[in-house]
Amino acid sequence: MIKVLKWIMVSGVLLFILGHYIISYSGLPEKIGVKGIYLGAFCMAIGLAMSLPTKMYLTFLFVTRENRLRTHTNKKH
Q1: Would the pTM count as exceeding 0.85?
Q2: I need a surface site. Which of 14, 17, 53, 65 has the fewest CB within 10 A?
Q3: Which chain regions cross the lipid bilayer (predicted)?
Q4: Does 57 score more than 90 pLDDT?
Q5: CA-based diameter of the chain, in Å?
Q6: Overall number of domains in the chain
Q7: DSSP symbols for 13-63
Q8: How far apart are CA 46 and CA 31, in angstroms?
Q9: Nearest CA to 41 among 67, 54, 23?
């Protein structure tokens, strides 16, 4: 499950970067007009939506780490 989540997050970030590239550097909006902007914005929106699990994943990692450290500290005292 975590591997799938990681792949979704990485794909989302890559799609966001692709959308930024399309809008900023590729010259596609100048060649095909508004459709080029739509394409770049679509890639960025889907990429942003796919990278949303990043926050949940990082929160999960921090909480489990904090619990491990608390358990370790309580055993020492």
Answers
A1: no
A2: 65
A3: 7-25, 37-63
A4: no
A5: 68
A6: 1
A7: HHHHHHHHHHHHTS-HHHHHTHHHHHHHHHHHHHHHHHTTHHHHHHHHHHH
A8: 23
A9: 23
Residue in the structure block whose two tokens are 């500290």:
73
Residue located via tokens 């929160």? 59
Distance of alpha carbon 16 from alpha carbon 50, whole angstroms: 9
Amino acid identity at 2? I
Q: Give residues with Cβ within 8 angstroms of 54, minimum separation 6.
A: 9, 12
% of the chain with per-residue pLDDT over 90: 57
What values do phi and psi take at 57, rounded to 5?
Answer: -65, -45
Show the tokens assigned to 51.
């990278």
- Tens digit of pLDDT for each residue in 3-12? 888 898 899 9
